[in-house]
Amino acid sequence: xxxxxxxxxxxxxxxxxxxxxxxxxxxxxxxxxxxxxxxxxxxxxxxxxxxxxxxxxxxxxxxxxxxxxxxxxxxxxxxxxxxxxxxxxxxxxxxxxxxxxxxxxxxxxxxxxxxxxxxxxxxxxxxxxxxxxxxxxxxxxxxxxxxxxxxxxxxxxxxxxxxxxxxxxxxxxxxxxxxxxxxx
Length: 184
Prior knowledge:
Blueprint (H helix, E strand, L loop, with lengths): L2 H43 L23 E9 L5 E5 L3 E4 L5 E9 L5 E10 L7 E6 L5 E3 L4 E10 L9 E10 L1 H5 L1
Parallel strand pairs: 1-9
Antiparallel strand pairs: 1-3, 2-4, 4-8, 5-7, 5-9, 6-8
């Protein structure tokens, strides 16, 4: 076997390895881009029940007393977060346009000072844009010392333009321990 017949195989292997490495790099970059792309997609379409992360304006359209909407509250802590987290009440009834105030309890049980962040979601997803938070603990990170506990406020209203066929909303919060990422 002469040296000329081996060379094309080496070049093909190098090209193949280069293509594979570029593919792996592109897939890795795409994986990192998925989260911001998903957030943009949800903001544009209103899918997945993502709610705005900034305060809504105060309702000036009045209250629709002819309708009653049941709002349920669900809370959970993300895996690995050593925090207690629960709503003050499991559900309330509101009239569209009526301002309501509820509290959520949080306690840091991690044994160290920590920082948490709550991420909200509303279902059905179509109703997310009609759920208006005026004041919400989810707007800010929540620093708590070890064993410290706190009641966190949520002030909201359901927009009077909520479609007539929606009579029940579920507001779900997931509390994440972001201590390590917040300090970097």
